[in-house]
Design a protein that fits this description.
The chain is built from 9 helices and 10 strands. It is α+β, with helices and mostly antiparallel strands. The strands form 3 sheets. The chain has a 5-stranded antiparallel sheet with strand order 2-9-4-7-10, covered by helices on one side. A 3-stranded antiparallel sheet has the order 6-5-8, with no helix packed on it. Strand 5 and strand 6 form a beta hairpin. It is globular, with a radius of gyration of 19 Å. It holds the Pfam family HTH_18.
C-alpha cells in the first residue's frame, strides 16, 4: 500500500482519466473524491470490499480510505474524477454539512447506481464541468464550482433518500447531526460527553452508534478532521507548524505531530516536502 499525495492547485479539480486492467496497489490520499464512470466497466475496491461499476455509476471515496480500481482486460475505462478538500465549501452557508455523507462509513454506500436520478444529474454536471474547462470557456472555473456544489447536493439527496431512519428517534439520525456539527466545529475544543448529551443518549450508546456510523471513535474522528485541515493548510499556505497546528484545532505542537503521523505515516514537515511530487 502507498499513500498518494495529490497536490491540488485549488481546493477542487475536475479531471478526465483512463485506467487499464494492470494491477496496482491500494492507495489513499487526503482529498475527498468522486468518480463518475463514463465508458466500459471497472472493479472498485475499498479496503476489503469490491464493487463492479458500469457506465454512469458514481463512486464516493472518503479521505484516508484505501481504494483501488482497474478495468477489464483490453477495455480501458474512462471516468471523470472530482477531487476536493473541505475548504472548498467553507464559504457556503452550512457548507460543511454537504460533506457528511463522505464520513458516514457504514451507512452510506460508496456506490450511487447509474439508474438513479442522482447519478444521472451528477454525471451531467461532471461532463459539463469538464467540457467548460477543456473548451476554455470564459469563467470555466466558476462554472466548475457551481457544478461541484450541484454534485454535492445530489450526493446528499441520495444519502437522505436511501438511508432514512424508519423512526425519527433512532440514534443514527441524531449521530448524523453530530457528525455535521463536528464538521463545522472541529477547530473548537469539543468534549465527547458534551457531544453525547446533544444526542440525548448515554455515553456508551453514543460511542457505539458513532463508531457504527463513521468507523471511528469521536476522538479519532475529530483528530482526522483536524489532520485533514492541516494537510490542506500545509500545501496552500506558508504558515509555520505551530500556527498551523493551532489553526487546525490542536492545542500543542506535540499533539499535532503525533496525530498527523498516526494518520499519514509521516511528519508534517516531510509531508510538506513531498507534496509537490504530484500535481493535479
Amino acid at each position: 500500500m502507498y499513500v498518494e499525495h495529490l497536490r491540488l492547485e485549488r481546493s477542487f479539480a475536475f479531471c478526465r482519466v483512463w485506467g487499464s486492467h494492470e494491477k496496482h496497489d491500494l492507495h489513499i490520499h487526503d482529498c475527498l473524491e468522486i468518480g463518475v464512470l463514463l465508458n466500459n466497466e471497472l472493479e472498485y475496491r475499498f479496503s476489503h470490499r469490491t464493487y463492479y461499476g458500469r457506465p454512469g455509476d458514481v463512486f464516493l471515496c472518503r479521505p484516508f480510505e484505501p481504494h483501488w480500481s482497474y478495468a477489464k482486460p483490453d477495455q480501458p475505462f474512462e471516468c471523470i474524477l472530482i477531487l476536493f478538500t473541505p475548504s472548498s465549501v467553507r464559504n457556503i452557508p452550512k457548507g460543511n454539512k454537504l460533506l457528511a455523507p463522505f464520513y458516514a462509513k457504514h451507512y452510506i454506500r460508496p456506490l450511487i447506481p447509474a439508474n438513479t436520478p442522482f447519478a444521472r444529474k451528477i454525471k451531467s454536471a461532471a461532463i459539463n464541468a469538464m467540457k467548460a474547462q477543456e473548451n476554455g470557456e470564459d469563467s470555466w472555473l466558476t462554472q466548475q464550482y457551481m457544478h461541484l456544489i450541484e454534485i454535492l447536493l445530489q450526493v446528499n439527496e441520495f444519502a437522505k433518500d436511501h438511508f432514512k431512519p424508519s423512526n425519527e428517534n433512532l440514534p443514527l439520525s441524531k449521530v448524523g447531526d453530530i457528525v455535521g456539527y463536528m464538521l463545522d466545529h472541529y477547530k473548537d475544543q469539543l468534549d465527547s460527553d458534551t457531544l453525547a448529551k446533544k444526542t440525548g443518549m448515554g455515553r456508551t450508546m453514543f460511542y457505539r452508534e458513532f463508531r457504527m456510523l463513521t468507523g471511528l471513535s469521536p476522538n479519532q474522528f475529530l483528530n482526522r478532521l483536524r489532520v485533514q485541515n492541516a494537510m490542506d493548510l500545509l500545501h496552500s499556505t506558508n504558515e509555520n507548524m505551530i500556527d498551523l497546528a493551532f489553526a487546525s484545532g490542536f492545542q500543542s505542537l506535540s499533539a499535532f505531530n503525533k496525530q498527523f503521523k498516526r494518520f499519514t505515516g509521516q511528519s508534517p514537515r516531510d509531508y510538506r516536502k513531498r507534496m509537490g511530487l504530484i500535481h493535479m
